[in-house]
Specification:
Helix content is 84%, strand content 0%. By secondary structure, it is mostly helical.
Length: 176
Amino acid sequence: HSHSESEKDSKSAKGEKGGKEFSALEEIRPGAILNFVADFVHNFTDGMAIAAAFQVSRSSGISMTIAVLFHEIPHEVGDFAVLVNQGMTKWQAFGAQFISAIGAFMGCICGLWFTSAQPTLVLSFTGGGFVYVALANIVPDLLEHNSNVSETISQVFMMSLGISFMVLIAIYEPHV
């Protein structure tokens, strides 16, 4: 039997494997693309912050690298889950995470190139970005959740503990 021209065109448009590549891409929702772009930009600013911190001092650079590492691990796991939830396969999500991680290297290169004269400006910008994310995303979630007194005390304690660590690092970093 013979196939019509439109059937042949349809099959060739789908690719060699019967459209698996294209149908898999069609199932990816806009939230996955938005998450990928936001993660790339976020990683870019992380790279700039690391570069600027190393230009201030070796100890600042090490502190910044450790801080970025500790915040990136849960962040990237969460992004992976979002990408899979938004229609990517696990391998597509892994690839997207790998590509977005390249943003950190690009940010580091740009940071080393452009911030050698004023690294504190970049640190101020990226620090402000981190504070914005905390205030705009995390605090409203804490306020929306109907916490009991014990949960509220626990949340305030953990925020205070985080602030205390930042203060201790700021005090003792110059001596390391």
